[in-house]
Amino acid sequence: MRLSTKGRYAVMAMVDLARYSGGNPVALSDIAERQEISLSYLEQLFAKLRRGGLVRSVRGPGGGYLLGRAMDSLRISDIILAVDEPLKATRCKPGSAAGCHSDKSRCLTHDLWEELGNQIHLYLSSVTLEDVVQRRVLGTSHVFAPPRISDVAGRLAAE
User: Fold this and answer.
1) pTM of the model
2) Which of 63, 6, 59 is nearest to 37 (CA)?
């Protein structure tokens, strides 16, 4: 599964915008500098994000971009889809009966990879921009949950 630079950079830029806006427009040049992303590339991404209604532009001195919706209603999947980034893990067209083999048959692992793509989409649809800004993402899978300082202090005190 590969998430392209376009999708990753769009999410990075939107998180930056949400974090630094404070209700005021943010210049793309500021986002470009903080996130180390080319300004011309950001301009292309923000044109798509604006068309998708995820951001709105403010012209004039002190202008820039604002979120088009509240952070808690913007899903990470919305951002990725707005920049035309499909999430797919197979070589085949998702949902297609035709497979990726030359005879149009599906490979033995097709269903595995297609379901992985579905799970990634479900996960990214469950995470909001606010979740990322507030750092509420790591540990939600319960695969890796970093120890909290209070837990470590409690164990040390018990020893």
Assistant:
1) 0.78
2) 6
Structure tokens at 92: 């085949």
pLDDT digits (tens, 9 = 90+) for 102-146: 787 777 888 888 888 888 889 999 999 999 999 998 877 666 555
Alpha-helical runs (H) found in the chain? 5-21, 28-35, 39-51, 76-82, 110-126, 129-133, 149-158
Find all residues with CB under 8 Å of 55, minimum gap 6, and list them.
14, 17, 46, 49, 65, 66, 67, 68
d(CA 42, CA 9): 8
In the chain the first and final C-alpha atoms are separated, in Å, by: 45
What is the chain's length?
Answer: 159
User: What span, in angstroms and rounded, lies between the C-alpha atoms of 87 and 7?
Assistant: 9
Structural domain of residue 78, as residue ranges? 1-85
Tokens 């080319």 belong to which residue?
38
Here the CATH number for the domain that contains residue 34 is 1.10.10.10
